[in-house]
Amino acid sequence: MSKRNAKREPVKEVDSDIEDELEELDLDGDASSDDADSDVDADGDEDGDEEETGTTSDAGEDDEIEDAMLELMAAQAERAQRKAAARMPNSEGDEPGARRQPSTRTTGKSRMATAAEAVAEPDADVAVAGAKEAATVAAGEAEDADEDEEDEEGRIPDPGSDSSEDERPNRNTVGAVPLEWYKDEEHIGYDIDGRRIARTARKDKLQQLLDRNDSKKALRTIYDPYNDEEISLTKEELAMVMRIRNGQFPHLEVNPYEPYNDYFTREREVMPIVDRPEPKSRFVPSKWEEKKIVKLVRAIRKGWIKIEPRVRQDPDDPDAHQPPAYLLWADDGTAEGAGPGKSGSGLTYIPAPKPQLPAHADSYNPPAEYLPTEEEVAAWQMADAEDRPRQLPTSFPSLRAVPAYKDFIKERFERCLDLYLCPRIRRKRLDIKPEALVPQLPKPRDLQPFPTTLAVSYEGHEGPVTSIAPDPWDGQWLLSGGQDGTVRLWEVRTGRCWRTWQLGAGPVAAVAWCPNPALRVISAVVGSCVVMMASGTGPEGAEGEAEQALQAATTSGREDAAAAAGPAMGTDGSDAAVDDGAPEAGQLAVWRPRPAAMGGGLEVRLRFPVKSLSWHSRGDYFASVAPTGNTQAVVVHQLSRRVSQNPFRKNRGRVMRVAFHPSKPFFFVATQNHVRVYNLAKQALAKKLLGGGGSISCIAVHPSGDHVLVGSDDKRVAWYDMDLSTKPYKALRYHQQAPRSVSYHRSYPLFASSSDDGTVQVFHGMVYSDLLTNPLIVPVKILKGGHSVVRSEGVLDCAFHPNQPWIFTAGADAKILLYCN
Fold it and tell me: Which HAMAP family match (predicted)?
C-alpha cells in the first residue's frame, strides 16, 4: 500500500492547482462531493473521538486501519461495478436504479489484506492517517466518476474530442462553405441524406445569464455553430483546458523529461563508413547542363525567349507600388508568345502517328467467323479505295503458303513521304451531323407577343412615304413625311388624317417628335431646312406652350419680337441680311420664324441638304446630318438658346446617320464603314465599332444604350454589344436587298428591319441583366405582301408603337401600314 500511495501522490500534487480552479467553478455534482467529504469527515471525527476515549492498545489501532481500508476497497469495487453495469444491459431481476453491493468474498479478502498491511506498518498512527486520507480521496473520485458517467450518458459526443468514443462525423455536411451564407436562411446546412438542418432558436443574453445562475452546468457548456449544438464539457476536458492555459501538456501521462537515448557513438572512427572513391562527376561539369545552357543562350539570342530589361522605378510613381500582374491562363515554363508544346526550334512537336496493331482478321489463318462471304467480297471490290479496308481476311493452310504483301513497298514509301511532309497543324476528322449545327432556338409561339397581322392602312400621300414617327408618349398619333412635300398627322386607331402641312416643293427627308412632353413639337427636314411646328395635340394648353417656346426661341437674343420678324438671326447672334435665307460664309445655320400662312413655327436653314434628324432624350438638343457637308456634315442645335454648333472639325469618312445615347453623354456617328462613339463630357472618342463590307445606311440604339443595330448595303443587319467587342455579335442576313431602316421597341424585346425587297423582318431580341448571358436573338415573323416594290424601292421606314407590340411601315407605294399582334 505504501508503494501504491507513493506512485499516486505526485499526480495529485501536480493537479492541485487545477483541482482548485475546478472547485472554484462550482460545477454540477460538487454538492455530492461535498456530502461525501462531510461523510468521511464525520467518520473521521467519530474515529477521532474513539481514539480520544478508547484505549491505545494494538488491537484498537488495527480495527481502525481495517475500517479505513475497507471503505477504500468498497468505494473502488462500487465504482468498477457501476462502470460494468453501464456497459452491460440490466438483467431481468435487477431494478434499473438498484445499486449492487460488494460480495462478501471480496470484502473478506480486502479485510485480510488490509489487516496484513496494517501489521506490516512500522508506525500505526501514520498508517491510520494515510488510510483515512486514501479513503477520503477514493470516495471523492468515485462520486466524481459517477457524475462524469451521468454527464456522458446524457450528452451528445463532442465531434472535436480526441477520445475514440466521441469520434463521429459532423451532422452538417456543407464543408468549407462560410456560415455567413446561411445567416438569412431558416437552416444551417444539410445532413448526409440531403435534408435541411433546421436552425434552433438561440437564447438571448438575459436567458443565458439566468441559466448560469440557475444551473451550474451552463458554465461548462459551449456552442458549436457549425452543427448548431450545445456541448457540455466534462471535468477531464476542463482539466485539460486548464493545463493547456497554464502552458502544460494536455495529458498527465506525458513526461517531458524522459531520458534521451543516444543512438550514435561519440567516439571518432579512423576509417569512414563508405570507403569507395569519390565519383568523377562531382569534379567534372555536366555536359547535359552545358547543352541546356547553350540552348537557352541560343533562344535568347534569336529572340525566342524575350527578357525585358529592368526599368528603374520612380519611388514617387504610384503605379510602381502596384502588385505585379500575371497571365492567369498562361502555361508555366513557356516563353511569351509561344504556345504549349513548343520545341527549341519554335515549332510545335507533333508525334508521328502509330500504325494500328494487327487483330484476328490479320492472321494468316483467322477463325471462320472472320472470313468474308461472297457478298462482302463483292461489296469490298465495289467500294472506294479510300473507304474500304486495306485487305480482306484470307485463310492459308500454313505460314509458308502466305505470299508477300504486294503493296508493301508502296505503303512504306507513302508512310515515309507522310512523315517527311507532315503538316504543322493537327487535323481532326469530325463526324458531325448537319442537324447538330442548327442552334436550338425557342419556338416563335413561345415568344409572343409580336406583330403578325395587318390592321390599319393609312393612305393619303401622293408619293413615296420616306419617314414615319409615332408620338413617344401614348402612341395616339402618327407623323409621316413623303416626297410630295407634305407632313401629315394621323390618328392611329381610326386611320384618319387629322392635319396636313405643306412644307414646300421638295421632298420631306425625315420627320421626328420632340421628346419633351410639355411642348408637343414636331420637326421635319425639307431640303436644307429643319422646320419645327406645334402639333396641336396633347392636353389643353399644350399647343399654346409649344408656340410660346418656339416664339421664345425665335426672339432669344433680340430686343423684341417685331425686330425678329425682320432680318434673320445668325448663330453668332449678329444680324445677317439674307434675302434668300441661306447662311453667309462662316455661318453654320440661320434661325428665323416661319410665316403664319405656312403654319408658323421655327425654321433652321443650313448650308447643305439635310438627310436625317435625331433628337436628344431631354428634348432640347437635336442633330442634323448633311452627308455632302464635308466638315459641316454634323451640326448640333439647341432649341432653348437658338444656337448651332459644329462638334467636329474634321469627319473621318462620309457621315450617314447620328444618334444620341438614351441616358449617357455619348454620341453615335455612323460613317460609311465605321460607327464612332464619342464621349461628349470628355470630348473624346470612346469606342469605334467596325463595320462590314457595305456602306452603312441606318442605325438604331437599344433603350438600354448597350446595344446598337446597324444596317448596311451588303444586305445584312449587324447587332453590336458595346460591352463585348467592337465587332458584330450577330450578323443577320435575311433580306434580299439592302435594308433601309432598323428600329428597337421601347418596352418589348423586339426589333425589326425593313428593306427594298418589300419585307419587314421582325426579331425577338432579349437582353439580360446578367452580363455573363448573351442576348437571345430569334427571327419570329416576316411581314410581306402589304407593300409593293416601286422603281426598286420597297419599305422605306419602320417604327414600333411606344406601348403596344405593333409596328408601322412606310413604303414607296405611298401607303403606311400598321401590323398588330
Answer: BOP1 (MF_03027)
